[in-house]
Amino acid sequence: MFGDIARFLLNTLFTLFGAALLLRAWMQTVRLPPYNPVSTAIFQATNWLVLPLRRVLHNVRGLDWASLVAALLAAIVYVVLMVAIAGVDPLAVGPVIGLVALLTLVKWALNLVIWLTILMALLSWLNPRSPAMPILYQLTAPFLNPLRRIIPNLGGIDLSPILLFLIVQILLMVVTRAAVSLTLFGI
After folding, report:
1. How far apart are CA 112 and CA 20, in angstroms?
2. pLDDT (tens digit per residue) in 26-61
3. Measured in whole angstroms, how far is the alpha carbon of residue 23 from the centre of its chain?
4. Which of 14, 18, 46, 77 could crosslink 108 through cysteines, CB 3.0-4.6 Å?
5. Distance of alpha carbon 34 from alpha carbon 131, whole angstroms
6. CA neighbours within 13 Å on the CB side: how many for 42?
7. Residue among 26, 6, 3 nearest 115 (CA)
8. Where are the membrane-spanning stretches (predicted)?
9. What angle is formed at CA 72 by the lines to CA 69 and CA 77, rounded to 5 degrees?
């Protein structure tokens, strides 16, 4: 029972932190203004890890490498802790840890896309004039706009978030299956 609680807490903590690091990188990629409450909260939560890495890793072609490497480091720590809780020696599965950490990072990114899309869809129905809508639109537009060109707008109903949700769920199934097949423990 202790192992299940520890796995749940680690999964929750690291998924939120990894998503924050990925969101930080994504906000800079889509050029989200840095002076809004979402950006400020993400920066405050992640500065302790990203700023030291930024001294070594600089932005190249609009990619925030410090945030991406920080997310990968968080994924590696997460996988090592999950392996240790499962009772497996992390050194024994060392080569696999890097690949599983990379798959975990992809899983966090896909989950982030799902949650941003759900939040945007809900706010568009409940409060389309919310101050968060421009931020959510800017973050999800690179994913939704190509789908909007494929799916016609049905009388004011945008079905592209549903299609994006389905695509990302399928990708999540593939990534999760790949990660579990590489290990004897679930992440």
Report:
1. 9
2. 999 999 988 888 899 999 999 999 999 999 998 888
3. 7
4. 18
5. 15
6. 21
7. 26
8. 65-88, 108-126, 162-185
9. 125
